[in-house]
Amino acid sequence: MKKISVVILNWNGRDLLEEFLPSVVKFTNSNTADIVIADNNSTDQSVLFVKQQYPSLSIIKLPDNYGYAEGYNKALQQIESEYYVLLNSDVEVSENWLDPIIDHLDKNKDIAAAQPKILSQKNKTLFEYAGACGGFIDRLGYPFCRGRIFNNVEQDHNQYNKPIDIFWASGACLVIRAKDYWNAGGLDATFFAHMEEIDLCWRLNARGKKIVCLPHSIVYHVGGATLQEESPRKTFLNFRNNLLMLYKNTSDGHFNRIFRYRKILDYIAALQMLISGKKKNAKAVLDAHKDFKSIRNEYIQIRDKNLLLSTTTNIKSIYPQSILADFYLKRKKLFSDLKW
């Protein structure tokens, strides 16, 4: 294998591959990078399409649909490269999108992972929801981005073009050193999808590794191509995985303090869904709490190991305020409005 492996995880995404794979092939330097399609047991002839249209690309056929997290784990176990690039199948890349990131990582060995600027493929003047210009969380575990807070997505006026340390890099386009990926334990298979990259990045941060956004590299992401925005399954995974992530990466005292607030806030969110007619989504929030409670004890040893391997609890990329209070009460709608 070459120095870099660009790995696209696919599940029944032939249409997406047909639309977006050409840009990846065109703008990825084949001298240094391999493009690998990891297929989660698709039934839509995705693999046949790749074989026929791109016979030079590598294909890893997985025997089942393992979801995003375990799908990548199983695929990456079969790849030997210095760098992995986890790239969604609905991402359009731009010219010279990858080389500047690899060059930066080559020169900065303390950086474990990076992401480019991620703009909306449907409206290229806007940041994209799942990553924008770098991800963060607040003190209660709510994720947000430089360029997107909750559903408020900013236009890109180059206002966030400065490279900075971030808390999490988006799984839509995550560049990571292979050794750091595995040293941190890879993605958590229980998550299946949603927030698994934030959980991985939390472990990296806690172990003294840096994660950066390098906005001079640009990609365009469709987003929401696998699970619809209002999907109860997506609601369940987001709420359940967020609680699991918090539990895995914080001490008893810290988690219990957060959980008291989160339980109230999550139930308020469920009530709002119910009032607005989204009964299945409201039930998904309650199911998420039940499922978290049922699997919590299974994570005691994993959590103990995470905390033992942590070298710091003072992660500067965690926003020390409540993003909910800032957004809804103080009306701070833009990332640039926040005070760290």
From TrEMBL:
Highest taxon, organism lineage: Bacteria
Record has Transferase as a keyword: yes
Protein's UniProt keywords contain Transferase: yes
Domain Glycosyltransferase 2-like, chain residue ranges per copy: 5-152
Pfam families: Glycos_transf_2
GO MF annotation: an example: glycosyltransferase activity
CDD domains cross-referenced by the UniProt entry: GT_2_like_c
InterPro entries per the UniProt record, alphabetical: Glyco_trans_2-like, Nucleotide-diphossugar_trans
Key words of the record: Glycosyltransferase, Transferase
Family: Belongs to the glycosyltransferase 2 family.
Name of this chain's protein: Glycosyltransferase 2-like domain-containing protein
